[in-house]
Amino acid sequence: MFLLLLLGGLGLITLMVLLFAPQIRRHAAGAQCKSTVCLDGKTVLITGANTGIGKETALDLAMRGARVIMACRDVEKGEEAAASIRAAYSKAQVEVRELDLADTCSIRAFAQIFLKEVDQLHILITNAGVMMCPYTKTIDGFEMHIGVNHLGHFLLTSLLIGLMKRSAPARIVVVSSLAHNFGWIRFHDFHSQGSYNSGLAYCQSKLANVLFTRELARRLKGTNVTVNSVHPGTVNSDLTRHSTLMTICFTVLSMFLKTPQEGAQTSIYCAVAEELHSISGQHFSDCAPAFVAPQGRSEETARRLWDVSCEQLGIQWD
Ligand SMILES: NC(=O)c1ccc[n+]([C@@H]2O[C@H](COP(=O)([O-])OP(=O)(O)OC[C@H]3O[C@@H](n4cnc5c(N)ncnc54)[C@H](O)[C@@H]3O)[C@@H](O)[C@H]2O)c1
């Protein structure tokens, strides 16, 4: 009897999902970037552009006429992604360059060659990220989430900001997450040496993205370089690769999640929308301003994080 009820219930749920599939998909897809801005003559740099949201962002911006530089850890995978972008749009000007955000030497080498060979940078999208990986350290001994998601991008941006100021108007888009709501900056244990929880480490790094955006925007006032952070939505990508449970959940619930193309819309919106030309230090989701948790609005924490980041990286950035 119980089994019959269970099967009947499951059958009913399946029927409802199938019946309402188009509505569910439409709702899950979220907002589309409606801007038709053309990017002829503009140069864009996207980190982690060989998969997921980054790859879709690269395709869209290349279709708008930009020269898109895809900064990828694995050049071979990057070249495959670039080839598929060229196959989708034969005029795409996409280039792959090697960048491992888990290695400050790689970041410095990348920036050195970039500054030598590229004379303008109008849009920087710090998109690369890792989520819920087992406790690992970057080459420089940073905990992987804070090391790649925050410190790596902090160093990269510091090295390229002069070029962006010279290329102004220019925009920086920092791909953060709703997960920043559940994070706090553990200044007393920045690299989770005392205790480690992969979910909380991810949340800390995504909060760091929001606070970095806020402080950088304050420092960039009057330069015509803006910076905003985004939550792309919950996107069915490879990001869950380190968590079997998350991968299963994302697969089962895929109909309710955004595709990478849908997840790229807010990054694209922040990169091109005309109405955002002077908007800086804000957080966006679904191509609209989004809620920022109180810990992401603290100017004091943002300044302290800035100083700690400079100290950890051994750099001066005033
Ligand atoms: N997928 C989601 O639901 C979701 C939700 C909120 C935020 N985000 C954010 O969106 C961004 C893109 O994620 P995605 O969903 O497209 O996942 P993804 O795994 O497809 O993309 C992440 C990219 O980062 C790159 N990367 C990882 N470590 C790197 C390193 N050390 N050096 C250089 N590149 C590195 C990967 O190679 C990959 O190309 C991430 O910052 C993620 O935190 C994703």
Q: What do these coordinates show?
A:
The protein is α/β, with parallel strands linked by helices. It has one domain (31-312): NAD(P)-binding Rossmann-like Domain (Rossmann fold, 3-Layer(aba) Sandwich), CATH 3.40.50.720. The protein has 11 helices and 8 strands. The radius of gyration is 20 Å and the shape is globular. The structure holds nicotinamide-adenine-dinucleotide.
Write the layout of secondary structure elements.
Layout lengths: L1 H18 L1 H9 L13 E5 L4 H12 L3 E6 L2 H14 L4 E6 L5 H14 L5 E4 L17 H24 L2 E6 L22 H22 L5 E7 L12 H9 L7 H4 L1 H8 L10 E3 L2 E2 L9 H15 L5
Bound molecules: nicotinamide-adenine-dinucleotide (NAD).
Nicotinamide-adenine-dinucleotide binds next to helix 3.
InterPro entries: NAD(P)-bd_dom_sf, SDR_fam
Enzyme class: oxidoreductase
Pfam families: adh_short
Descriptors for this entry?
single chain, 318 residues, alpha/beta, Rossmann fold, 8-stranded mixed beta sheet, 8 strands, 12% strand, globular, binds nicotinamide-adenine-dinucleotide, NADP, NADP-retinol dehydrogenase
